[in-house]
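Researcher: Please translate sequence to structure tokens.
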Amino acid sequence: MVKKRKTEKDESLKRVHRKTILFNKREIQAIEHYLKKYKIKNNSKFMREVIITSVLKKFDDDYPSLFEKKPTLFNQDLKRKI
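Model: Translation complete:
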């Protein structure tokens, strides 16, 4: 007999915020084909992972780097008044 472990759940990780998204016919067909091809059963988990992965990648791409271009006379915003 296997004992179940009691785990403390972090309330801040509980999913309580709902978002709705609409797809056109081609988009939903592509998604359904992908889900079927890769035998993905949990659509919500899949959508959540794809969205969060995309967001985190964008954050990572936008993070300032050591070698970021510094403003020069030629690439500064020219809208300011001199």
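Researcher: Any highlights?
Model: The two ends are 79 Å apart (CA to CA).
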